Amino acid sequence: MVKENKKAVYRYLAAYLVLWIILFEFILPVNNILPKPSIVIESFPSLVTDYQLFPNYLSSVAVIYLSLFCAYYVIFFTGRLQGKGNIIFKNFIFSLEWFSEYIPGIILGLLLIFWFPASEYIEFIFAFFYAFIPMMIKLQKAVHQVPDEYITSSHSLGLKSSYISKMVIWKFSQAEIFRSMKRIHFNLWLVLIAFEYIKGGYGIGNIFNKALIYVDLSAFFSALIITGLSVYLGNLALTYIYKKTIFWK
């Protein structure tokens, strides 16, 4: 069933591509909706030279995946050490969840830009916390969702609390964290582009900013395609890592 759904999606994507070529290459070559496919291809050298595609793209990719990597491994080390205690810490994490439900994360980014407008590190700091907080919230929820029979059985086997934390509670929680990783990954791309758009400097958001200033539809659309492909490839990588890492689920 899943394979059939994927095939259907690919067929629709192919249909959208053909429709774009026919409609905007031949029927409506001059418009303000979508650029001609041929212009998008021809504008790529300009995207490299005028919009500094490679340093901007590499900057965004480095920030996103380095922040994801760092956030996950901080969760990894803290998650393996905790059990179902630490009520004060858990309440603190859930208070952050309350804020995240009512205050958009980009507001934190705006505050960082306001406080440190010239800093080169606030982009990574912002991305790290934007990835870390939902992972930590997911961890705290997962810890309380571990079936009691898992804990009881482990104690009956004479296992130490530290071993139970590492091999039972953490393993259960790790799977739940990985299930939320794609959504965190997508949201991170979204807010980082907005952050870069507002702050300036390097990043894909800077390309979108310049494209809108210059009213360059082809550059904007090219950056959109590159971003979409990057998110897609990132999701494929996360799926592969999930299957290799969470082999017990």
Model description:
The structure is a single chain. The protein is mainly alpha-helical. It has twelve helices and no strands. It has helices at residues 2-27, 37-42, 44-49, 53-79, 87-102, 106-115, 122-145, 148-156, 161-179, 181-199, 204-213, 217-245. Helix 4 (53-79) runs parallel beside helix 7, helix 8 (148-156) runs antiparallel to helix 9 (161-179) and helix 10 (181-199) packs antiparallel against helix 12. The longest helix is centred in the last third of the chain and has 29 residues, at 217-245. The chain starts with a helix and ends with a helix. The mean pLDDT is 85.
Topology:
Elements: H1 2-27, H2 37-42, H3 44-49, H4 53-79, H5 87-102, H6 106-115, H7 122-145, H8 148-156, H9 161-179, H10 181-199, H11 204-213, H12 217-245
List keywords for this structure.
249 residues, 12 helices, 81% helix
Strand segment count? 0
The helical percent reads over 70%
Largest sheet data: none
The fraction of residues assigned to DSSP E strands is under 5%
Can you count the helices?
Answer: 12
Give me a quick take on this structure.
The chain is an all-alpha fold.
